[in-house]
Known about the structure:
With 471 residues, this protein is an alpha/beta fold. The protein has helices at 3-15, 36-40, 44-47, 52-58, 65-72, 112-133, 137-141, 154-166, 183-193, 211-219, 237-240, 256-268, 294-299, 305-311, 328-343, 354-359, 365-379, 403-411, 420-438, 442-449, 453-463, and strands spanning 19-24, 29-32, 61-62, 76-82, 87-97, 100-110, 173-176, 201-205, 220-221, 234-235, 245-249, 270-272, 279-281, 285-290, 314-317, 348-349, 384-385, 390-394, 397-401. It is built from 21 helices and 19 strands.
Amino acid sequence: xxxxxxxxxxxxxxxxxxxxxxxxxxxxxxxxxxxxxxxxxxxxxxxxxxxxxxxxxxxxxxxxxxxxxxxxxxxxxxxxxxxxxxxxxxxxxxxxxxxxxxxxxxxxxxxxxxxxxxxxxxxxxxxxxxxxxxxxxxxxxxxxxxxxxxxxxxxxxxxxxxxxxxxxxxxxxxxxxxxxxxxxxxxxxxxxxxxxxxxxxxxxxxxxxxxxxxxxxxxxxxxxxxxxxxxxxxxxxxxxxxxxxxxxxxxxxxxxxxxxxxxxxxxxxxxxxxxxxxxxxxxxxxxxxxxxxxxxxxxxxxxxxxxxxxxxxxxxxxxxxxxxxxxxxxxxxxxxxxxxxxxxxxxxxxxxxxxxxxxxxxxxxxxxxxxxxxxxxxxxxxxxxxxxxxxxxxxxxxxxxxxxxxxxxxxxxxxxxxxxxxxxxxxxxxxxxxxxxxxxxxxxxxxxxxxxxxxxxxxxxxxxxxxxxxx
Length: 471
């Protein structure tokens, strides 16, 4: 290492807000940042005279993230409790020379203060929920302007009232719930209720942006930043959300390097376009959504704990459709009206169809209900949609099949009147449905199929499928 490199590394370590450790391959500590002493309860000199094995055995840090990297040779992230009682998140990366592990560089961030802040928000939310259960005063009985949303059930009205209460603030809202429950729609309603309603609402599907394009799409780029860059550069999605709301859907799909970049923007409020040196201040309200259990993702090392606390300020859980069946009639009527307007017809739901609509579990929630209704609408030969019409989607072609015919078509390779294109689409859907029951993420499905992750996202959306997270 040159003298300049050595001085640069020492400056980084001594001035960093986070706590850096440089550990040799045998566990001896070569250097630590001065701020580490307050968190780990030992002076910098004492830390540099010991090993990570001894520190773990003595309970100074538990567990040791450096030992995990030395064991696996892979980057690692763990939550630690130090001997001073501080809760930190530690990340470590291996350093190789000619294929041999020579050192481990780790950094930790003290999350105790963030955790206290999170507990304060949780207390406020519990008090608000208690207020709602007691009747909610005049607001609980007031009519809610929900545009195209449906919130007749008590559960959804409680969600809507919570969103309306936090809408005037800039607090980050985390939308939780199964796929298809309407997180995007409620995020748009939150934006309409907020003082930023005149600004843009930028909807970003994190799972559909390849990791290689994430930085240029989110932060933008300057002219000449890379081959093919647009003349004059381009403003990223974060800049486009200026003065409005940035909605990050499927935030749990973000790879760890991208999570670090997002966290920095949330903390600093500045972005730097790709290839640029000038930092630009951004001002937007952040709303995120996921159908994953982020707490479990943190435990598994797939999601940063510090980012989780930053996002989990106001958690809002949208219940599945099977737990709020009172909303089904309104959802059906609204979507049926949209279909009739779009296609210039006046179809209605048969009276005996309502029992089926109200009785189904709808694992795909509102999205599945709307998809079923559109297929049934297109397949109905008359202006009345009957309950016993089972619709099969095959490569974009909708056709009505009787139960006996459906069973027969499953036994044959090619159903009567079915084209090769339709049969291939049906096979593709069956394969994807099976992988949705087995895989943990769209990235795992992409690796199994040998295609890109955005292609998997598009195919799942086309077939109305989702990953089953309850395994």
